[in-house]
Amino acid sequence: MLRYHTLRTEQRLPGTPDAVFPFFADAHNLEAITPAWLSFRVTTALPVEMRAGALIEYRLRLRGIPIAWLTRIEEWQPGVRFVDQQLSGPYRLWHHTHEFEPDGEGGTVMRDTVRYALPFWPLSEVAHALLVRRDLAAIFEFRRAEVARRLTRP
Fold this sequence. Notes:
The protein is of the alpha+beta class. It is built from three helices and seven strands; from the N terminus they run βααββββββα. The protein starts with a strand and ends with a helix.
């Protein structure tokens, strides 16, 4: 049985889901909303045609260790949601759902739900408690702040 963790975030953004979704439809923007300490780079030729089945390759450095990461877009509903899943990379499971919903006041509620599992369970639970949970919280907090900054510019 696969044991996994869940990370959930929610953020309100100005503009309708149809207005904010294009920012997330551009794979290149993922670099802009990822902390510099990860040295994160999309290595798939840009622009990436975002659609169900699209493959996106990344490179990053985590605590000095170079990591290759490959994800596939499993679901693509512009203005509503998309789901990416790791095919190869640092996690045993990485399933990330991005949802966009009108907030009833002309804005958008954006929700991220990440189900993830580390390799080498149960030993990896120590790494999760000491490092991974904190690192993911920092990454998603950076992302929240950077998305707010970029989507609220005049």
